[in-house]
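Q: Structure for this?
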Amino acid sequence: MPDPAVAVEGLSKRFGAVVAVENISFSIEPGSICALLGANGAGKTTTLAMLLGLVTPTAGVIRVLGKDLRTDRYSVLARMNFSSPYVDLPQRLTVAENLDVYARLYGVRDIQARVTELGRHLDIEGSMRREYRTLSAGQKTRVVLAKALLNRPELVLLDEPTASLDPDSADRIRQYLVHYQRSNGATILLASHNMTEVERVSTQVLIMRSGEIVDRGKPMHLIAKYGRTTMEEVFLHIVRNGDPADRQARYSVR
Amino acid sequence: MIAVPEQVFSARRIGAMILRYLYLLRGSWPRILEQAYWPTVQMITWGLVTQFFATNSSWVAQAAGVLIAAVLLWDVLFRAQLGVSVVFMEEMFARNLGQLFASPLRPYELVLALISISLVRTCIGVGTAALLAIPLYQYSIFAMGMPLIAFFANLLIFGWAIGLVICALLLRFGLGVESLAWASIFAIAPISGIYYPIATLPVWLQPVAWCLPSSHVFEGMRTVMFEQRFDVDRFAAAAELNVLYIVLAAIVFLRAVEVARARGLLLQSGE
């Protein structure tokens, strides 16, 4: 049986008195798309940051692509990549320059061919000579995604990858991400508030609340378990009070 | 497989970061102009002061160009420090630190890239001013010969050490300490003996001055210009202090990166 793409055991992070993540454990099968759900402040971004080595855990073990992140951080980082709304790219470099620099950092061979390929798939070919700062939010999102896929990562961590895209662009990006995942056998961990997206692309869901994982499973299983019709209803139910008996929204909008 | 095997130290990654800073420099002519602007203004001012003192001060008259040489070498120190800390700040302004520290780039490779681009920026800035001094004041600092390389190298390294400590403070306290990048080096200017011998300082302050590589460099520069000899002891003292300071600065910076990881500061580095 292959190693999980991600295996987390007893992971915690405290910032002083604030508990951001509390004793979570999970694993993600290689070649799957896993969604990490939770309300704002639930601990999703901190969890992703720990998987990237950007935040040191207070406790717990993280194994990524079969390696311990504490001891093999850099060899693992070369095989993964990410996008996050909490970081950005140099504003005054052109799109092509930004992608060139990151391709070199990640050791991409035949940079020009890879950048051209991603430019075509993510519809940023026409923006290559433009400074990053002059792009629209949607264009920036696509450039950051291109950067996240430059090195053909085996593991991609995506924090709200389609948040600033119009429905058409978001749909195209989702299609491309699924295509990328299938054609490369990659694993994607996706933090998202878009429940339609989660239902559509993910094979596994982890739901966080107040730093803990409160439920997990396949989207359809969770919908059935909570007696709902969509993941959005499951999400609202869990983040609001977590009480399985609570089926009544506070304010009904019809 | 599209990626090459991972290496503990990679010239490719350092080169990528240098390229990133060169792209930034190339993309903005005001940035290039700014590199040379202040060193040139300083050089012109002190050149005029030199012309005045050449006929009113026997000390300056003994070694024409001593004040111009001093201001050019001071700018080597200042530009070297700025070259590290301001470039690092640009990563913070761009909210790019998280991208870099989640990539295979090692923190020490980032340090090497920062000091490399600092060397480029210093050469552009001070080199332009030094070349302009030749037609303007008939003074060439390059006539100093080999000692100039020794002075240049020592001031560069000391500037890098100060710059790295400022980067560590920026990581720890954020852009709220931005002004340190511009102002902190002026705290050591009065005791570096840039324009006057260290003996001019109060006796109690002189031991402090001798703890700075810059004091040994400027004293050594005057020895070359007034006595036409290279003081090896001064050079050795500056070099030894620089080894100590650059190692300490690198440790402080790398430690600051670890503290930033522990406190989650790498995701909060923007404005």
